[in-house]
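Q: Protein A?
A:
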Amino acid sequence: MVRSRLFAAVLLVGLWAVGPACSGGSPQGPAQVDNDDDKLPDDTEDRNGNGQVDPGETDPNSNDTDGDGIPDGEEVSTLACDPSNDRPFAVLDVPGADAEVLVDAQVSVRGLVRTNDDRNPGAVFHDPGLDVAAAILGKGAQGGSLSNQRAQLMDGFAALGNPGSPRVRTFVTTQGFPAEQARFPFRADQAMNGPALVNALSSAALGGVALQDTLPEVGAESRDFTLSMLTIQRSANTVVFLFAATPGAEISDAARIRQEELTDGTNVARRGSFTRHVCDPFVAEAKAYADILWVVDDSGSMADDQMAVRAAAGAMAEVLEAAQVDFRLAVARMYANRPENDQRRGRLEGDGFTSDLNKFQEDILVGADGGWEPGLQTGLDALNRALPATAPGAAADPQRLRGDAATIVIHLSDERDQHVECAACGGCEAAEGEARSCTRPQGQVVTDEFIGQYQAMGAVTFAIVGDLPDGCSQGVGRDDFEPGQGYVEVAAATGGQFGSLCGDMRQNLQDVARVATGVSSTYALSAKPASATLRVAIGLPGHGRVVPRSGVNGFDYDPVQNTIVFFGDARPAEGEEVVVAYRRWDWANNPDTPNDPCDDCVEGSWCNPEADRAMCEEPCGEVLCEGELVCLPDTARCGEESELPTETPCGECDPGLVCNPGTLECVVPCEETGCEAGELCNSSTHLCQPFSP
C-alpha cells in the first residue's frame, strides 16, 4: 500500500497540540470579577463602565458574546492557533535536491521531474490561480561565492532571453546553510507561459538535459517575466536552486507574496525534516520608528542617479506610510572632490533628518564633481555625529538619531568603496574603471572591519551600486559602473540588501522601504517559520479577526529580520491582541530542540509531521513507502525490495561504511566526504552521483 504524504500534510492537522501561548485571555488577579468565566474580567469587558454592551465590548454575563463557540477570552488566539484553523499546505519530498519543500495548498500542481536515464534532479510547482510557476534543482557547485553560483546559472538562462540586474538579500537558512534570494526581470526571446519558461530554465540549468514529467504548459503568454531565485550552498560541492516565474514586468501583490513564499528560504529543508506548531502572542504598539540615512556619491558621474532617487522617492514613502512607520530621511555626501581627511564628510545636508519628502528630494541632489568615494567611512562618520541618540519619547532632534528608531543606511555609488578598493586592488587608482572585483585578501580585512563597526552600531545597510562581480551597464549612451565592492558585503552582513544601480530605481526604493518596515517592527517571532504556513489574528478580546497576507491591507513577513509587518487598514490599534501561528522546521539531532522520538529516525527517513511521532518510513517523492515496499534510490518511487541495487559484491561493510557497487569497495558515506564538482550526494545510497553543471 502507498499512502500519499501530501494528503496527510494537508488534512491531518487536528492531531497537533496547541501550546500555552495560545491560551489567550487576560490574567485574573484576586480582586477581579469574571461572572461568565470567559477569562476576561468584567471591567475589561464593559470598558466604559456603563453597564451596557456597546460596540467593541463583550458581554460580562456571556462567555461567548458573538455565539461562535469560542469563549470571549480566547477569541483572538483561537482564530490563529487552533489547529483546525491552520493554513492548508503540502510537503513534497525531493530526493535529487536532498530537500523537503513546503508550499501553500493553492500551489496545486507539483511533482518530480526526471531525466531520460530515470534520475530525479528536482521538482516543479505551479499555482494556477496566481500563475506562479517554480522549480527546485540540486546541482554540483561550480565554485566561488553564492553570487557567483547565481550569476553562472543566470548566464545559462541567457540562452532563453535576457535576465535583468538582480536585487539580492543574503542570509543563513534555519539549518545553517548560507543562502541568497535574488529578484530580477527576465525578457524571453519569444512569448511563452510561465510553466513553459520554468521547464526551459530547468533544462538550461542542468546543461540542456531533456526532462520528463515537467509542468503542463498552460497560462498567459508573455515575453516579460518577473523572476525570484533562491540559492542555498549545501557544501563546497553541492548547491540547491529554487526559482519562481510569473508573466509580466509588474506582477500583483498576491503573486509577489507567492514568489516570496517559494524563494525566501524558509520553506525548504533537508530530507527527513518535519514541522512543529508554534504560536506567538503580542500586544500591539502604537507605531514603529525608522531613521534612514542616505550616503550619496557626489563624484562626476552620479548626477543622473541622484535624480533617479529623487524621482522614485515617493514609492519608498508610500510603502513606509502604508505600514504606518514614523520615518525620517537624511543625506550625507562623500565630498568626492575633497582631500581624504575633509572634515565635512558625515555632515548631514540641509536641516538634517526630516519627515518632509519634498525636503529630502532637495537634499538628495548634492551635485557631482570629483573621484574619491569613501562611502563606508562617510556613513560611520554621519552616524557618530548623530549620537548620542535622543531618548525614546523625547522630542526629535534633526541632527540626532532617535533612541527608539531602527537605523537604516543606504550607500548610493557607481564605484567600489574607496578604502576597500585601495586595499583589494593594490592601490587607490589601480582599478579605476575596472569592471572586475579585486581579489587581494587585504580588501576582505578592510571590509570585515567596516562590517563590525556597522553591526556594533545596530545599523542595517543597503547597497545601491554596481553588480558583483563584474559591474553593470545602464545601456547605450549611459554609464558603466564598477562592482560595488565593500558596499554589497556590508549590506549582506547587516541584514540589508543589494539593489543594482543599473536596475529599476523605483523597485530598489520599494525594497528599501519594505526592509525598513521589517527592521523597525516590534513583532519578532520566537522561531523561524515556514512562511507559507503563517496565519495572523488581531483584535480586542472577544473581537478577533484574521488578517490576510498582503503588502497593501494585511500582514507581510521579513525572512531576514524574522518579523511581521502590518500594512494599511490591517494594522492593529494600540493595545489590541496580535497572535501569529505557524509551522517551524525540526529534524533529527537538531541542537536547538530537546530529544524526542523523531531523533530515532535515520537520516533521510520521515518523522510524521502531523503528530510529532516517529514513523521513520523512507520518503519517496509524494508518498511514504509502507508495507513491504521500499524507496528505490535515484528514481524516488516505491518498489519491491528485489528492485534495490545489490550491495552483496562488497561483502559485509564495517559500521560507518557503505558499499559502492561500482568499485566493489566499502567507502565512507558522501555526507562525510563531500562530492566533487558536478556531483551530488544521494541521501538514499550515500554515494556521489553525477549531475550536469
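Q: Protein B?
A:
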Amino acid sequence: MEQKRAHYGEEGFEQALEGLDADTQEVAKLAAELCAVRSISVPPQKANLEAIGESFDIVKKYAEDHGLRIQTMEPNSENPYPFMLITFSHYNLERPPCKEAIALMGHLDVVPAGEEQFQPETDGKNLYARGAADMKTVVATYLAWMAKMQEKIKNDSTKILPFIFMLSGCEENGSCEGHNTETALEMLEQKGIRVRFAVVGERTGELEWMKNLKVGPICTENRSWRWARTVSKTSIEIADKATMPYEKNDRKSIDGEAIDGKAIDGETIDEKPMDGMEALKTIAEIVKLGRERIQALNETIDPEKSAKQPGLRSGFVNPFVSIGPNNEYATFSKTTKIHAVRKGGKAIHAASAQTSKASLIETFLEIAENASQTFGTDTISITCVTIGEEGNFNTYDGSGAMRIVINADDDAVQQWMTSNKIQQWMTMNNVGITLSTLDEIKISDKNTMLNDGTTPNEPTTSDEITISDEVTISDKATMQKEGAPSNNHGAIPSTDIQNSSVFGIDLRELPEHKTEVENLIAQIREQLATHWNFQMVNNRPSWKCPSDHEDLQKLRLAYATITDESSPHYVKLHGNDGGSLAERQQLSNPRYAQKGLGDAVVFGQVGKFPHGKGEFHDLSSVSPYIQILDEWAKQYEVRDFIPPQHFSPTQLKKIADDVENIGALDGIKIFMFGIAVSFRKAVEELRKGSILGERIATVLTRNKKHIPSS
C-alpha cells in the first residue's frame, strides 16, 4: 500500500522523515525548501530571475549559518544570473592555501512545471517535486556535507580540504549566459587557482534498468552538450553579410546608401526573410541530414558496450521550429485551411530522444509536398509551423502543428485528407498526426492556429480569444500546440510567429563520435551560410576522464569502501557544466583535444523522471553518497607538524604520508633535504619542481616559524 504523502510546510512533512538518518533528514528538508522556489531558467527569455535569486539567498543563509565562506558573482546587465562559490572558512579564495582545487558542481535552476510540482511532498522514502532529482537534492547534500566538515575542522586550521562548491543558476538553459561555470573557472584562474578535478552531482542512477542502486554510479564518460540556434536572414542581412542571429540588424545603410526598402544601384532590397514552404524545406532537409548521420554513427557503437548500457547512443534533436507565413495565399480565390497537429506525449529530456525515426519537421514537409503534388505548387501556402518553444532546447514531447492554406474547395481538400493514399501513408509512418480543416479566424488580423481543429467561440474582444480554461491568446500571432502534458513543460508555451524563421538543434555525441560530429556541424554551417545565421549557443564537447587520474582513483576507492562494490562504468547521457572544464582543457591541451579528455566525472544519487511529471529523488541514496564524500575527504586531510629544529626521518615520513598526491620523487626530496640541508633550501628546491612539490613546500612553510633559520 502506498504511503500517504506529506506536503512541505505542513506538520506531517518532518514526521514522515523520522525514519531516516539525521544527515538525510537535514538534506531532505533543505532540498524541499529549495524545490518550493520556482527557479525556472528555460527558455532564457522567460527565466524567473527573481526566484533564482531567492534560491541563492536560501543557500547563502545556510552556508553563513554553518560557518562556510562564500563568494558570489552578483547578476548585472550583462550577466543576468548569480553564481556562488562556497569553501571552508579557512580557504579564502583571495589567498588560498593551495593553487589547486577539487570542484563539486551543481545548479539551482529548473525547467518549467505545473504549480503542483513546486509543492514538494514526501512519503518518507522519496522527495517529489520539480528539481528534486535535477538537482536540488544533491545541491542540498553538498551543502549539508560541507557544513558537517566545517564543524569537524573549525578548531583545527591545520586541516586543509581542497574542495570548493561551484553553484550555478543557469545550467538548464545551457549556461549560455553569465554568470556561469565558464566565468567562474576564469575567475579562479585569475586568482591562480586551477580546478584539477570536478565532480558534477547530476543524478546518475535514473534509468529504469538500473536496479537496486544504493547510489548513482561514477560516470567517467560524458556526451557533448551542443546547441545550435539558426535564424533566416533578411535580404538586407544577406547583402550586408550579417552573421549574428541574436543581435538585431539595425543598420540604416549599406555603403552609405539607404536600404529601408528603397533602391540601391537600381535594385530594391527586400527585408523579408525566408519563410513558408521554402523555410520548411530547408529546415527539414538539415534535420534529416543530421538525424541520419547520427543514426549511422549509432550503428557503429560497440555491441558489447551498447548491451551493457541500454539506450546508449549519440543524439540529434530538433527541439523547436517557428516558421511564419509567406502571405502567398493573399491572391487565392479560395482559402481552405488545413491543420496538421500531433499531440504531445510524455515530456522527456531532449537528450533522450531517438534518431531512428523521421522527426516531426520532416513529416510536416512530406504532408506539405503531398498537398503540393495534389493541388499544384502555386495553390498551397505554408502560413504557420511551430514545434516546441524558441530557445528551449531541453525538453521534447513530440508535439507540434502546421497550417497549410490551399486554393481549393473544402470538398476537394476533405477528399484528399481522407483518401486512402494519405491515410495509409500516415498509418505506415506512425506519425500520429490529425489533419483537419478550420474556418477562417479573425483575431486582429493575426494568423492563429488552434490546437483542436475546431471552430472556437467568438472572441470576447477584437484581439483576445480563449481556447481553453488555461490558454489565452492575446494580441499575438500565435500557434498553440495540442496535447500539453500535465507538467506544462514543452507543450503549453506558445511560440510567437516571428519575422524570421527559427529552428534549433540539440546534438549530444558520445566521445567516440566527437570528430564526426564536429565535421557534421561544419557541413551544416556551410550549407546554411547564404540564407541563415547559424550560431552555436552551446559547444561543449564530449569527454572522458583519464582512468589513471589520481583524484578519480581516490573517489573510486571511497565508492568501493562504502558500497562494497566497484562503481559500474556508464556514460552520462545528459549535458552538464563539467563540460565547461573539459572544453577549456581541450582548447589548451593538444593531448586532451586529440583524445577527448577532461578532468571531470558525473556522480550523483538516484532520481527519476527529471524534466517530467512525477519527478522524484530517492532519499535512501543520500546517506551512502555522504559516506562516500566522507571517505573520499579522508584522503585529502593535510596535517601540519611542529618539528624541533629539523625534521626527523620519522616526522618526514609522516608528512610524506599525509601530504595529498605526493609523488615518490617529492617524498625523497623531503627526506633528503630534511636531513642533509637547511629547511630554506629544501623549500626553494621544492618550489622549483612540480606542482606537487610546491604543494608540499606550502605545508612546510606554514611551520617555518618553528624551525631555526640556517
